[in-house]
Amino acid sequence: MQERLSFYKKRESAVHRLNPLSKLTLALGIVFVSFLSPYYWTPHLLILFAVIPLSLLGKVLREYINAMLRLILPTAGFLFIMQALFQPLEGVELFRFGFLHPTQESVLFAFANATRIVVMVSSFTIFLLTTHPNELMTDLTRRGLPGQFAYVIISTLQIIPQMQAKAQTIIAAQRSRGLDTESTFFKRAGSLIPLVGPLVFGSLVEVEERAIAIEARGFTSTRVKTSLNSIPDTNKDKLIRWSLIVIIIVTLASRIWLS
Amino acid sequence: MKIEIRDLEFSYPAGIQALRGITLTIGSGEQVAIVGQNGAGKTTLVRHFNGLLQPTSGEIQIGGWDTRKYSVAKLASRIGYVFQNPDEQLFSRDVKTEVAFGPKNLGYPNEQVEILVHEALEMTELSDKTEMNPYDLSPTWRKMVAIASIISMDTPIVIFDEPTTGQDAANIARIANVIKVLRERGKTLITITHDIDFCAENFERVIAMSQGKILLDGKANEVLGQEDRLATTYVDPPQLTRLATRLELNDTIIREDMFLTELHKKLTRTL
Amino acid sequence: MAIVNLQNVTYRYPLTDESVLKNINLQVDEGEFLAVIGPNGSGKSTLCYTLAGFVPHFFKGEISGSVEVAGLESSASTLDEWVMNVGLAFQNPFNQISGAKFTVFEEIAFGLENIGVPREEMKPRVEDAMKLTGITDLADRSPYSLSGGQQQRVALTSILVMQPKVLVLDEPTSQLDPIGTREVFGVIRTLAEKGMTVILAEHKVEWIANFADRVIALHEGQIILDGLPGEVLTSDILLEKGFGISRYTSVARKARAIGLWKNSNLPVTLDEAVDGFKR
Known about the structure:
heterotrimer, A: 259 residues, mainly alpha, 2 domains, 71% helix, flat, C: 279 residues, alpha/beta, Rossmann fold, 4-stranded antiparallel beta sheet
């Protein structure tokens, strides 16, 4: 139950020690470059020379490989097959089966896209594995993100597992009243209101109480907020962020000039 | 209707063993209160009765039905279950529709549903609130709607999970009255409760649970008098029992009439 | 000296016709421990919200009369100022967890962050508050992994850390099991003994009788009784109006009718009952 929606793994590493904004910039930078670069081999290089080294440096290689095998590769593989088969581009036809006629171009295009997806999801996986959501939000709030916005993000992360538990209880309560949730599709569709109704109404009551509770602790106080944990932001961090911005601009420029 | 439980064990998927071998028979028309600290397995046990949970090993028979062979929806015709929080149960626009939901699911003919709803509303003192939206009622009355919506199913067995939590004296009296009427109708009643005075005043038999096992099981006054053993599952004896013990009255006393009789006896003896 | 002063307070929630508080007059002295009893719907929660500034600042609605708590005057101040001076905790422990924090320590510091307490002051304040409520060993746990009683103590600590002058508690044990109830009452008792002004709405009469300095009884938005626990909690009026009373009071009243209780006063607590019956 504890922190189910947070992927964060507490470790001592150079990546963990980076400022959350630097890590976010790094993750976004990798994604931008892989999508914007005019060269089809860029995503491959990024996996080899950015994503994997980062996961090693952040001591989360095992978790990353796990996510790769269970989530990232199956998803990317599925996208590859769908695009290759169903989005035929003009070009050399590889084979024809019914209405399917994939071309060499469509396969290459799908492969490039799939690797970009792999890079994107990988980059964010490593970001989430090494960044505590609370640190990220504290840091962003300090930089001017509205406190309410940060609160919504963080509390959602925590409240969703609680909502799931509540939904389970509601289902149990209604089944105990003879509601058939197991048989035919129509019966299941008809059982939606008894299940969703209490979830919504109950949440409305809770939202008011929660609002009072956080208000009682000065949530909307007009004073300048402080934070319990100091989040380091070193010159190294600034250097990393500026370098990334330069790299993104260069990639963007090369894309415009070369196409 | 009789409930028979044999060698029941249950572990949650995460591996926590919640029930460690329970064998128990609850006779037709009995009123049983289950007490014990949170985590003792009370709710886990009763959720097996209507099939919400399936035993890891052992078996439960509800009037001869093996709970492993019947769906929850089917078992609902034999067991009504009032959940602790009414807000996790109510969804209808008005009280009457809410209370009719259960009996309709059970497939009673319309005229029968009308009668059952009417009776349930009367028993819970909701007759003047039938057209109201449950969410416009106070939490106290919402609790009564939740109770009515189970009673209306007219099941031979009714389970109450923490019926008095958060309720005031007037509503506890109302709930006690519902239990009394149901008892007169010969229903089997099972209540999970922390409210030990309520338990003493309304139930004939008390089962104390601790760490997934039955610690004590017997007549209310026999069980509730065992202060030391109850303390191991964080249950205090009822107020009157504690008073009677301090006054060294005979027998284990759990109700006012018993207390006054024993007090009278003691005083006349000493005179 | 009175730290709470309510004069002729009448209040109505928005979009409703009936006043929930009717002409309330209440003074509470600094350091006093006041218990509020009353059936559900009698106005206990609304009174708590009024003392904590949420009525009318959060709920809006129509208020008349004057409300002064901890030197603040309701009509001339903001909720922001109130929460700095008056703490509020209520029934459901789960809904009082902010959801913004991942550990108990951070959860308790949440209020201090909001009101801009400097970081170096924060840690000792959180540690002191946790020591006071006995939850130091929970510091690194997730607030959501705790039992109800532990969560309620975290909620109390989160309020105490803001160093309120008055603490308002609305049935803090009503959703808890006996162990949780014992834990939370233990904390309240410690606070009262340390001189905190506490206003507690509560159904558990025996406990109030043992520890409160004074009790008021609310019925349909009005204070119908105000006095020492022994007087208020044994009053015949409570029986007439459907209040919950202690079993000791109830059985002694019946014993008195048949001549088995000789004292002029009825008991509320076990000790009083034992003494009285032994005569």
